[in-house]
């Protein structure tokens, strides 16, 4: 395994836009369930999966469509809590998936919700638009004679240009296709994410919600360690006081235990939404934002 730090990517967007399929492309394996033309949302819970992609450790957090009108406040809170805990101590990039083969209607508001929930800097510095369905666009003949998607966006898609500008000109067209086109596109995406991280100062995104989640995850990780060791003192834990996911010189087994305890801690903290003050606050912000946009907003 690579010793470089893990790159954490959060997939966001409306149902059916291709979040899970993008996650599978990035990881190079079918980890997330996808379904064509589904009338109901396929992904119902946030899920995290990992892979080594072209020498990089990558963790992808797939999310349900929590911008959706039918989600109750409790469901939205649960999804946000889970997303925050699974991407703790913070994602390196939020990837907002936007399909190219239809007009962007609610994505601008989605960026507003992201800002309200995670802070302005989350969009300004750490959000990248991930354009999906480029092959469909070509197949439907919507690009005229050209094949350059970027030229098409610049010339014909004022709706997408607005989104791109809002995200600091960060976007990537995720290509599928034979002959390694998909892999090349994923590599270019990861390079773009790394560039984004550098431009943002070199680290992952952080805000009080992620800081609080990280504290809770570490606390829970200590408790799990304590329980697994039959209640013996904290001094015996191989990972006491270490940063998350840090590798240890000890046996592989220890490292696996640490990773397992960390994963379990992230899952349980994600489900502990009712006693998390900051998560209540971010939900409150999100819902006030939605109130403000009222009926103009298709999401929620
Ligand atoms: N041709 C083509 N199909 C795509 C592309 N991206 C996604 N799809 C297909 O679109 C369908 C929906 O994709 P999903 O990844 O399940 O969508 P999702 O955003 O995860 O949807 P929910 O889980 O319901 O929120 C699947 O059949 C995918 O294979 C793409 O770039 N090109
Ligand atoms: Mg999905």
Distance between the termini: 41 Å
CATH homologous superfamily annotation of the largest domain? P-loop containing nucleotide triphosphate hydrolases
Number of helices in the DSSP assignment: 11
- Supply the CATH class of the largest domain: Alpha Beta
- Mass-distribution shape: globular
Q: How are the strands ordered across the major sheet?
A: 2-3-1-4-5-6
Rg, please? Answer: 20 Å
Structural class: alpha/beta
Number of strands: 6
Instruction: Summarize the biggest pleated sheet.
Output: 6 strands, mixed
H/E series, N to C?
Answer: EHEEHEHHEHHHEHHHH
How many domains? The number is 2
Q: What is the percentage of strand-forming residues?
A: 5-15%
Offer a concise description of the structure.
With 300 residues, the protein is α/β, with parallel strands linked by helices. It has 11 helices and 6 strands.
Plain-language structure description:
- It is a single chain.
- The protein has helices at about 20-25, 75-85, 105-120, 120-125, 135-140, 150-155, 160-165, 180-200, 210-230, 250-270, 275-295; strands at about 5-10, 45-55, 55-60, 95-100, 125-130, 170-175.
- It has a 6-stranded mixed β-sheet with strand order 2-3-1-4-5-6.
- The protein starts with 6 loop residues before the first strand and ends in a 7-residue tail after the last helix.
- The protein folds into 2 domains: about 5-200, Rossmann fold (3-Layer(aba) Sandwich), CATH 3.40.50; about 210-280, no CATH class.
- With about 300 residues, the protein is α/β, with parallel strands linked by helices.
- The chain contains 11 helices and 6 strands.
- A hairpin with a 2-residue loop joins strand 2 and strand 3 (about 55-60).
- It is globular and about 70 Å long.
- Helix 2 runs antiparallel to helix 10 (about 250-270) and helix 2 packs across helix 11 (about 275-295).
- Guanosine-5'-triphosphate binds near residues 34, 64 and 132.
- Belongs to the TRAFAC class TrmE-Era-EngA-EngB-Septin-like GTPase superfamily. AIG1/Toc34/Toc159-like paraseptin GTPase family. IAN subfamily.
- Keywords: GTP-binding, Nucleotide-binding.
- One of its GO terms (molecular function) is GTP binding.
- InterPro entries: G_AIG1, GIMA/IAN/Toc, P-loop_NTPase.
- This is AIG1-type G domain-containing protein.
């Amino acid at each position: 395994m690579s010793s470089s730090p893990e790159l954490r990517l959060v997939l966001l967007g409306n149902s059916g836009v291709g979040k899970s399929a993008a996650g599978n492309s990035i990881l190079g394996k079918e980890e997330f369930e996808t379904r064509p033309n589904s009338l109901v949302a396929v992904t119902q819970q946030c899920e995290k999966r990992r892979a080594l992609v072209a020498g990089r450790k990558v963790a992808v957090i797939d999310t349900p469509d929590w911008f959706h009108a039918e989600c109750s406040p409790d469901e939205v809170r649960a999804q946000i809590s889970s997303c925050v805990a699974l991407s703790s101590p913070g994602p390196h990039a939020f990837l907002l998936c936007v399909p190219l083969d239809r007009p962007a209607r609610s994505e601008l508001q989605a960026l507003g919700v992201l800002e309200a929930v995670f802070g302005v800097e989350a969009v300004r510095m750490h959000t990248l638009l991930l354009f999906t369905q480029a092959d469909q666009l070509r197949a439907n003949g919507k690009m005229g004679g050209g094949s350059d998607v970027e030229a098409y966006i610049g010339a014909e898609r004022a709706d997408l240009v607005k989104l791109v500008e809002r995200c600091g000109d960060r976007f990537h067209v995720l290509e599928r296709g034979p002959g390694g086109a998909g892999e090349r596109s994923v590599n270019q995406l990861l390079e773009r994410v790394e560039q984004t991280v550098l431009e943002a100062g070199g680290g992952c995104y952080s805000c009080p919600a992620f800081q609080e989640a990280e504290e809770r995850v570490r606390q829970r990780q200590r408790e799990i360690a304590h329980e697994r060791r039959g209640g013996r003192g904290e001094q015996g834990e191989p990972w006491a006081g270490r940063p998350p996911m840090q590798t240890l010189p000890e046996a592989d087994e220890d490292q696996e235990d640490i990773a397992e305890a960390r994963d379990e801690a992230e899952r349980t903290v994600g489900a502990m939404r009712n006693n998390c003050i900051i998560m209540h606050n971010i939900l409150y912000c999100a819902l006030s934002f939605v109130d403000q946009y009222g009926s103009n907003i298709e999401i929620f």
